[in-house]
Amino acid sequence: MNSASAGPTFLSSSMLTPFPKPVIRLTTGGFPILPDVETPDFFDPAAPDPAAPAPSARLKHAGGGVWAAGERITWVAGVVLLLSAFMDWYAGSGVGVKLAVIGWHTGVLGKLVFVIGLAVVVLVALRQAGFELPPTVPESLLVVALGALATIFVLIRLISIPDSMLPADGRGIGIWISLLASLGVILGGVLSAAEEM
User: Fold this and answer.
1) Count of the separate structural domains present in the chain
2) Are 109 and 156 in contact (CB under 8 A)?
């Protein structure tokens, strides 16, 4: 009796496939078809160039015009304020004599105007040299405060002529230049503050 009629034959699963060997399926987790793609972030700053100089901690306004002139106005007004202490603040005439009194000789306030002008010039020079004040003390605010102080001192001398200056009872051109220079220091500080914003 042959083996074909002996009974039902059970086929194994390896006999049902058309492949001679079993198929091994590989996972695609380790071999992706396309690599992972990350969308670019347009708001990230580009990597800084190592050869480029380090940016300053103080931000400067990129535009030109009057908004970029704050430091120049502060510098010029500080120099004029410094020199105005040696201009005639009071003028007058006596019997056959004309006299003028410079700001330096009007007392302590005239000398303080000189010192404030010198402080403003030194602040601007230090900033140009790369020296920065601490962030808690904004330079523009300090310049505005110095300009306001100089304006108060000049206004006191403009309104009240000391008795020791008589007969020089008129105001000379120097005190008006001092007043304009102290207001210029305030303007320069305000424009510098606008540049830093």
Assistant:
1) 1
2) yes
Residue 123 near residue 139 (C-beta atoms within 8 A): yes
Task: Give DSSP secondary structure letters for 73-107.
Answer: HHHHHHHHHHHHTTSEEEEEEETTEEEEEEGGGG-
Mean pLDDT of the chain: 77
Q: Report pLDDT digits (tens) over 56-66.
A: 555 444 455 55
Per DSSP, the three-state class of 171 is: strand
Nearest residue to 87 via CA among 180, 17, 156, 188? 180
Q: Is residue 116 part of a domain?
A: yes
Residue 41 lies in a domain: no
pLDDT at residue 186 above 50? yes
165 belongs to a structural domain: yes
Residue 107 belongs to what domain range?
Answer: 65-196
- The side-by-side arrangement of strands in the sheet containing 170-171 is 97-102, 88-94, 170-171
